[in-house]
Each structure stands twice: as C-alpha cells, then as structure tokens.
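A.,

Following up on our hallway conversation. Structure tokens first:
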C-alpha cells in the first residue's frame, strides 16, 4: 500500500482528498501545524515559521500533495496577512525541499497546488492556457513564487506537478456556500457587472486530478485544474437559484459596496478569468465526474 502525505490536509480539499485516496487503497498521512488524532490517518507535526518538520512524515511517504497555505479569502489583506499568504506557501515548500534533501526517503512524486490566480485576478474574457503569461497583481506574485519554490524539488529528480486550481465548488468551504446562502434566503444577486468569469471545478474532480497527478508517471509540469466551461458570475448565480428553485429578483450588488466591504480582497469576487483546461484535454485522458455545471450544482446543493 502506498502512502500519500498531504500538507494542509485538514483543509477543505485535503479532507475530501483523504477520503478519496483511502477509498482507492492508499494510506494517508498529514502534515499539520496542530496535529489531532484522526482515525485511519497518521498526522505529523510541522512548524513552518520555526523550520521544524517531523522527518517521519518524509521517510514514510511515496507521494506528497502540498496544499498548505493561509486562506486567501479568510481575512482582509493587511500587509501582515499578505506576508502570511505568501510565506505559508513558499517557506513551507522550502522546508519540504530541505527535508527531502536531508532525509532518506522514497518519494516518487510531488504534487503542489497552485492557483489560476497565476494569470491575474481580473483578465476579462481572454482565454488563458498554461502557456499564457503570469499576471502582476498580488495573487499572481504569490502563485509565481509558489510554483518557483517547487523547482529545487524538481531538480532532485522527483517528478513534480503543479495544478493551477480553479474555484473549487463544494459546500464544505470556499465560494459556493457564500453564493448559495443569500440565494436560499431569496436575496441572491450577481456581483458587480456579473460578467466576470468563474473558472470552476467540482471538488471531486480537483481531487481526481491530484490523484491522477501522483499516480500517473507521465504527468509533469503545470496543468490548469478547471472544468471545461467557465461561466459568468451572473450565470452561476442564476443557475444556483434554478437548482435551489428560488427566485432571483434583486439587482446586481454594486462593485463599490463590495470594495468597501472587502478592500483589496474584493478582486477575488469582482474580478474573473476564463481559464482553459488545455493540457488536460490535449495530453491526458482525464475523465471529469462533473464536466457540466448544472450537474455539479445538483450534486452539491441537492
Ligand atoms: N479551495 C479553492 O477554491 C482553491 C482554489 C485555488 C487554490 N487553492 C489552494 O489549494 C490549497 C488547499 O485549499 P483549501 O481550500 O483546502 O484550503 P483550506 O481549507 O484553507 O486549508 C488549507 C490548510 O493549510 C494549512 N494552513 C493554513 N494556514 C497555514 C499557515 N499559515 N502555514 C501553514 N499551513 C497553513 C491548514 O492546515 P493545518 O491547520 O492542519 O496546518 C489548512 O487546513 C490552498 O493552498 C489554496 O490556496 C484552493
């Protein structure tokens, strides 16, 4: 039985990934800042700020999935929070690289999360593939640095994959509960112009991608982790209302209100990007469970 070590595995994606890996016969271990006993999972401690990591996590792993990072939309972006968002991703990767350099291990693959924020938070309706240029805003800088921090691991001849993850749809966290709750209450409305694109993916599909990435020795480099068809914020909100069988009567929420509420973080809802899954389509046989948004929403909201 192979062991997959997940950093940040206590989070939204990590919890579902743990279940799916176990169903497929993998053993799962976690690296966490505050290890708690969890049935069927071994949890090791690390402290990125103090450069500490339990070496047993690395010694026992066949694959590593690196998801750890301070939540992008959890708090307003003060300078301190921005530093934490950056360091929790880059310094944690550096700590893993150092552990891989100094520990006897048999790790075959290193799959790192990245994000479609790589291209910039507001890129209009310009289609973006893995070959498109990086953006210049804060999240683009974070994701570039995050992807670059994986290079020393690649240089150790460990197969590395970076998944530029789209907006993950799940009711366990992230954007969907925040969009669905007002709709349920009859107060749903598109945000800003409503024309910003959301490059979404169902949680089971993003987890499926991580599993393929660690399992399939042909996968390497960067892949956009998004469903085949991005939608606008307005279309998504209307479809949520249809699936929940609720009316949509309110006008759009003006952009200035969102900016007042969220400051710089507002770009994560007012901005959008139209991201294509080009490498998945052209170079892999990956089968989505939910390529269709309506079916994804029925599964999650039903
Ligand atoms: N969900 C999405 O829509 C989405 C989209 C694009 C990219 N991503 C990326 O995918 C990764 C996983 O996403 P998620 O939604 O599962 O995130 P999440 O629910 O916020 O979980 C992230 C985990 O990272 C660890 N963490 C938090 N702050 C940290 C810090 N300062 N230093 C080190 N570790 C820290 C925590 O684990 P412990 O408390 O156990 O240490 C936490 O459970 C994240 O890096 C995220 O940026 C997610």
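Then the amino acids I'd put at each of the 302 positions:
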């Amino acid at each position: 039985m192979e062991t997959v070590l997940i950093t940040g595995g206590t989070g939204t994606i990590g919890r579902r990934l743990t279940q799916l890996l176990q169903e497929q016969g993998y053993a799962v271990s976690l690296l966490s800042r505050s290890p708690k006993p969890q049935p069927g999972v071994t949890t090791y401690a690390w402290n990125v700020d103090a450069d500490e990591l339990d070496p047993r996590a690395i010694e026992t792993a066949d694959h590593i999935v690196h998801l750890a990072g301070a939540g992008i939309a959890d708090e307003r972006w003060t300078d301190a929070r921005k530093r934490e968002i950056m360091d929790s991703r880059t310094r944690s990767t550096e700590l893993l690289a150092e552990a891989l350099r100094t520990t006897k291990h048999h790790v075959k693959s290193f799959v790192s999360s990245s994000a479609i924020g790589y291209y910039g938070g507001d890129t209009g309706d310009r289609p973006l593939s893995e070959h498109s240029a990086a953006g210049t805003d804060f999240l683009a800088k974070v994701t570039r640095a995050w992807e670059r921090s994986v290079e020393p691991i690649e240089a150790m001849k460990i197969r590395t994959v970076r998944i530029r993850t789209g907006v993950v749809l799940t009711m366990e966290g992230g954007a969907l509960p925040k969009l669905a709750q007002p709709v349920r209450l009859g107060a749903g409305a598109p945000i800003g112009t409503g024309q910003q694109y959301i490059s979404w993916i169902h949680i089971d599909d993003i987890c499926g991608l991580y599993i393929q990435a660690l399992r399939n020795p042909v996968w390497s480099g960067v892949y956009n982790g998004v469903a085949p068809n991005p939608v606008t914020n307005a279309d998504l909100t209307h479809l949520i209302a249809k699936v929940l069988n609720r009316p949509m009567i309110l006008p759009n929420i003006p952009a200035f209100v969102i900016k007042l509420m969220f400051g710089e973080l507002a770009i994560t809802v007012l901005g959008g990007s139209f991201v294509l899954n080009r490498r998945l389509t052209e170079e892999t046989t990956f089968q989505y469970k939910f390529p269709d948004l309506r079916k994804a929403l029925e599964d999650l909201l039903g």
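The pocket of NAP is lined by residues 8, 10-14, 32-34, 48, 67-72, 84, 88, 92, 113, 115, 165, 167-168, 173-174 (CB under 6 Å). Curious whether your intuition agrees with the design.

B.
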